Amino acid sequence: MLHFARWKIALIIVVVLGGIFTTLPNFFPASTVQSWPDFMPKRQIVLGLDLQGGAYLLYEVDKEDYKEKQFRQLVGNIRRALRENPRIGYTGLGIQGDGVQVRIRDNARFDEAEQRLVELVNPLNSGVFGGAAVNEFVLEPQGDGLFRMAFSEEGLDMRLASVVRQSIEVIRRRVDELGTTEPSIQRQGTDRILVEAPGESNPQRLKDIIGATAQLTFHLVSQEMSASQALQGRPPAGTMVVEGSDGQPYLLDENPLLTGEELQDASVAFDQQTNEPVVNFRFNTAGARVFADVTRANVGRPFAIVLDDEVITAPVIRQPITGGSGQISGSFTVDGANDLAVLLRAGALPARLDVVEERSVGPGLGQDSIDSGKVASIVAAAAVVIFMLAAYGQFGIIANLALASNVFLIFGVLTTLQATLTLPGIAGVVLTIGMAVDANVLIYERIREEARAGRSAIGSIDAGFSRALGTILDANITTLIVAVILFFIGSGPVKGFAVTLMIGIFTTVFSAFTISRFLISVWVKRKRPSKLPI
Hints:
Layout: H1 6-23, H2 30-34, E1 46-47, H3 49-52, E2 54-61, H4 63-83, E3 90-96, E4 99-104, H5 110-117, E5 123-125, E6 134-135, E7 137-143, E8 146-151, H6 153-178, E9 184-188, E10 192-198, H7 203-211, E11 216-220, H8 227-232, E12 239-243, E13 249-253, E14 258-259, E15 263-270, E16 277-283, H9 285-297, E17 303-307, E18 311-313, E19 325-328, H10 334-346, E20 353-361, H11 363-392, H12 394-417, E21 420-421, H13 423-452, H14 457-489, H15 493-527
Parallel strand pairs: 1-21
Antiparallel strand pairs: 2-10, 2-20, 3-4, 4-8, 5-6, 7-8, 9-10, 11-14, 11-17, 12-13, 15-16, 16-19, 17-18
């Protein structure tokens, strides 16, 4: 147990020096580290929200808003299905309560209408693996020619789960576009999303960027009647009245010709004539083809660009636009144009998100937490060092050296992985210090027992390490299991604690059974002791 091959000695030295070398940048300001030569490490530990301040936002998916949008889309699908040749006459199509209703005029065609409408239930799960098939909607014949379609309970749950997943990806793209360092974006419960942005200096802008639905659609302006006439009476079927950013109403075709999903890129530019900020956009290949066809067939007609149910601009198509690109103008500020470009590049949220909880943590409070954590760590480390020196003498010095290398290894791994260090994470480091010493205590007490039983000094050391191994592994494996569970089930600060605890478990076992044993073997070779100093 006390013999080390040369390659093992070299490996131990490399690992320890690597931990010290990687941790080194954390002792200097970021400006100083960036001026170092390229061969020097420059990564520093990423501090969490509670240590460097920032924004904490908890969002909830607006179920009613999502259902209303899906119902509006369902109304359009029902209208198209019933207008197919041969057309089926209907009346009263619209959203009623928690569903969509339509009445068939001719009861003799009731079954034919049902066959067309049943195709709109939208299967989400075919049930091919033994589970029950799940449809998004249920079709309920009410009698007297009346049909009603509403969300199925399972279908709505599956849709909301999909909405949360999509929203997390969209939010992540938006936050990354802003350049926020190491944002934490994760699901909470069934319909909530937690966003933590450490170091964010403008929480309001972050909230505006995340909360904007950014559903971009392109519609032809209807020429059947004016928007004011539609507001006074009833808009023609297949049209809708949308208010513009300037307060002017527009009568638009209800079905969009293009959506933001066809966008490939969006960027900020300046109008050459007015020098005002504008947003240039470019469609993908399929979108460019549709855009060219639409503009070619509708020269002279206004073409409205709608963002989140508001007409941003409605220019007249002067000539076919075949390049697949366009421009959005609307008296933007530079920041406003940049934010719109960010939203368009990141994509639209599938549903509106409502802020449930909002907190802004100042950097001063974070610095207080860091200072408190430093004090706690120093006090804990000092107490442990003093105890080990008092209890085990020279072996206590070896344990303290192993403990110091253990701390460097923990922070080295955290720095290399760019894991976020939180206040509970500091607690995990302090706990790891105690666990590391505990391993050494078990080994040293086992060595004492072997010495009392009459073994030689070298035999006692060898037996102490080998026989304490099983106990220490058992204790650390059970702790590791708990840490893994905390990581996968917990969230936010709990995960931060679990990460540092898991890293500490591995470094503790390494420092106790490799570094301590190596240092003791070096001491044994130099001193050739006949009696143990503990």
